């Protein structure tokens, strides 16, 4: 877990970030993954987001400070991966991404449900 982070609220178990990256990669070509914090926030506010993923290494961390409380307010599950560069790459962009939001997971629907269930268990234990 990122030290001194104001937005990382729980630690994601080993192996889960790899599954998250796989889902991002599977859904990126469907145009149903919103990339970047502004697009992520819009998706949450419009009740379109099925899952929000944030990178733990965002600097300054204030960029994502608003996202977890908004997700909780709108009942959107969220989780973390360690690297913003890898998150951007998985989302199909050549730059880093602080966050992404799934609008429609496409063929990765079952895997997304499994990841969401696991994230909710981890969050309850935290």
UniProtKB/TrEMBL annotation:
Cellular component aspect of the GO annotation: cytoplasm; ribonucleoprotein complex; ribosome
Domain Ribosomal protein eL8/eL30/eS12/Gadd45: 20-110
Localization, UniProt: Cytoplasm
Gene3D superfamilies assigned to the protein according to its UniProt record, in alphabetical order: 3.30.1330.30
Lipid metabolism among keywords: no
Protein keywords: Cytoplasm, Ribonucleoprotein, Ribosomal protein, RNA-binding, rRNA-binding, tRNA processing
GO molecular function, one term: ribonuclease P activity
BP term (GO), one: tRNA 5'-leader removal
Chain's role: Multifunctional RNA-binding protein that recognizes the K-turn motif in ribosomal RNA, the RNA component of RNase P, box H/ACA, box C/D and box C'/D' sRNAs.
Subunit and partners: Part of the 50S ribosomal subunit. Probably part of the RNase P complex.
NCBIfam families referenced in this protein's UniProt entry, alphabetically: eL8_ribo (TIGR03677)
Family: Belongs to the eukaryotic ribosomal protein eL8 family.
PANTHER family: 40S RIBOSOMAL PROTEIN S12
Record-given protein name: Large ribosomal subunit protein eL8
